[in-house]
Amino acid sequence: xxxxxxxxxxxxxxxxxxxxxxxxxxxxxxxxxxxxxxxxxxxxxxxxxxxxxxxxxxxxxxxxxxxxxxxxxxxxxxxxxxxxxxxxxxxxxxxxxxxxxxxxxxxxxxxxxxxxxxxxxxxxxxxxxxxxxxxxxxxxxxxxxxxxxxxxxxxxxxxxxxxxxxxxxxxxxxxxxxxxxxxxxxxxxxxxxxxxxxxxxxxxxxxxxxxxxxxxxxxxxxxxxxxxxxxxxxxxxxxxxxxxxxxxxxxxxxxxxxxxxxxxxxxxxxxxxxxxxxxxxxxxxxxxxxxxxxxxxxxxxxxxxxxxxxxxxxxxxxxxxxxxxxxxxxxxxxxxxxxxxxxxxxxxxxxxxxxxxxxxxxxxxxxxxxxxxxxxxxxxxxxxxxxxxxxxxxxxxxxxxxxxxxxxxxxxxxxxxxxxxxxxxxxxxxxxxxxxxxxxxxxxxxxxxxxxxxxxxxxxxxxxxxxxxxxxxxxxxxxxxxxxxxxxxxxxxxxxxxxxxxxxxxxxxxxxxxxxxx
Length: 518
Prior knowledge:
Layout: E1 4-8, E2 20-23, H1 31-46, E3 50-54, H2 65-75, E4 87-91, H3 95-101, E5 113-117, H4 120-128, H5 136-143, H6 156-172, H7 178-189, H8 191-199, E6 221-226, H9 234-242, E7 248-252, H10 262-276, E8 280-284, H11 301-312, E9 317-322, H12 327-332, E10 340-343, H13 354-370, H14 373-385, H15 396-409, H16 416-435, E11 436-437, E12 442-443, H17 456-467, H18 474-488, H19 499-517
Parallel strand pairs: 1-2, 1-3, 3-4, 4-5, 6-7, 6-8, 8-9, 9-10
Antiparallel strand pairs: 11-12
Helix pairs in contact: 1-2, 2-8, 6-7, 6-9, 7-8, 10-11, 14-15, 14-19, 15-16, 16-17, 16-18, 16-19, 17-18
């Protein structure tokens, strides 16, 4: 039994044989929102088996809201099986004229969309036919693959951002954020977003049916998030994601970016960064309106802020967030010492997976937290190199060794801990040479003989105890010389060193040099 529905604007022939009617009466406002909030619920309640739609549903024929409505019906997840029913477009012109008038007329060339003249006889003929619903396979191949709904050009950046927010929030199942719920409402009503969701459904289940839950980073540390879109939902998303690990401290740089200039923005970021002292900064590439107009990568505010952060402490790890899909821009980011980048989902880039983005974010933040000790390494190195003794050319080699430690540790070389240890040990040997004439085995200042064995370890301890009055480093000296000998004279054993040991030895070296400097 048929349950036919006509959607009109009092501009069709008398059609008493059609069961139900809906008058399209948009007075003002957004047509997509009106269709979602007013028309779709009525269609769902009627549950028709065939739908007739007048092509124009307003006083202005060229608006052709009827064709737009047909897309909404086909793409609405709320309509479940109804979206597969036959749709007949009633028009006063033929299909070829409509096709010249608007790109939306391409729907007329998809399966189970028909066009009828605006007269009783033609429409009644359709009503007598036994038309079948689209199958799911036909829906995919004969509808989705044949249409192309373009993004609104006037706010393409906003569209990309809203799409990415929606996908990330859906994966985290965030329902208590006002900003995200507002974004979700826009996604649900806007025709372009409906098209995207139909083409790129969010899959949050693994092949075995187990729910995919984004895993947070496992290490501990402090994260600072800087993005001009922070209040539109991104801050809520990232706060929820990182809150899954209680060892992570997350803060958003809550700043009014609108109309801000690069100078005032950088000044505010510098003060906040110096105060908060983050281990990792999540930084959007484009933070000001001018960033969307420039073609010079070096002029982007995100690049300028990265340089500023590296001036504060080059060990602060920067992860760039960007909606760009240009590989030339993304790969050039590494020249500025970033840890990595995350590409926000772009509606036209089908190669970006939300799941993979969460996995990559976890991996990058964990790597950033592993490098957090480098912040202290940098501060130690900066303090040590400021000592007056390094104005003396006699300490040139020691200065070189100290100056290389951060660079070694900040690299990706496999044996960076070993090379850093060797540099620290070389500094200890240079200190020995400052106090001891190794060729004669005597103190340089008194010419008295060195007592005991003249091994490197013993000489270092002699200097610490007798010349610098430093005690308590015996075990550390024993450890570093033992490991150094294991590297220089390997004996089928693996030398293992970690970042904690490097920090302990470097702090010891700072104390020793400070005493020499006094």
